[in-house]
């Protein structure tokens, strides 16, 4: 591993002399939520991403700009040498959940890593291998795109567009999920295996989206430890039960370049107004 990191560092150092291009993007928004019968609240968000590219090497750094300081949210470096890709996740993000009622991770884990992957094309299929021992097979056959990963967790995904319907099916460790997307009389419809249904009406820049969110059943917390060992890993918080509810969101692009969105939720009878801009 030390030799791997040294090689990656040398590759990075060699590419910093002449940066071929830098791309800057970001977003900002202000939201007012009347919160139904609860006190109203105003929230803010501003984010920025910088992407620097030189040949086959890319650095991506993201920042959260609202608040009292510029906070890093991601720092990723990757380079490609032939069929080998070396990627480094250099930022240790907060992986523990900030809420105790939605089943998030309980203990904090270290998320920095260096990954080496090999991608070999064999006919219509690509074979990938990473330094975690995961083997990935992917390709498109008769219009159906299939990917299959074998490792700590076996994941198989198949997607296709048939008669105007975009379909995707994923099996992860024996559990299957799916989604369907189609357009009927100008209405974009989405249906998932989780019984979530959404319909988007209107034209680009002036839309209304109606979404039905299924009920959520309560789930007990799971024990874990700070090392992530054992059958429960880092552990999970409990999941609180939530009744089924619907939302209606009306979004309109303004001549100022911003987008104004009004969202009503039947969960708490609330109305949220959000002004946002992206660049």
* Cα-to-Cα separation, first versus last residue: 39 Å
General shape? globular
Assembly form of the protein: single chain
Mean pLDDT: 90
Share in helix: under 10%
Low-confidence region ranges: 1-19
Following the backbone from N to C, one meets helices and strands in this order, namely HEEEEEEEEEEEEEEEEEE
Number of strands: 18
The number of helical elements comes to 1
Radius of gyration: 22 Å
Largest sheet: 18 strands, antiparallel, barrel
Strand residue percentage: over 45%
Summing up helix and strand content along with how strands pair, one would put the structural category as: mainly beta
Characteristics of this structure?
279 residues; mainly beta; 18-stranded antiparallel β-barrel; 5% helix
Structure in words:
The chain is mainly beta. 5% of the residues lie in helices and 55% in strands. It has an 18-stranded antiparallel β-barrel. The radius of gyration is 22 Å and the shape is globular.
Short description:
The protein has 279 residues and is mostly beta strands.
Secondary-structure map with pairings?
Layout: H1 2-15, E1 21-33, E2 41-54, E3 57-64, E4 71-81, E5 84-89, E6 113-122, E7 125-130, E8 135-141, E9 144-150, E10 155-162, E11 165-172, E12 175-184, E13 187-192, E14 197-203, E15 206-213, E16 245-253, E17 259-265, E18 270-278
Antiparallel strand pairs: 1-2, 1-18, 2-3, 3-4, 4-5, 5-6, 6-7, 7-8, 8-9, 9-10, 10-11, 11-12, 12-13, 13-14, 14-15, 15-16, 16-17, 17-18
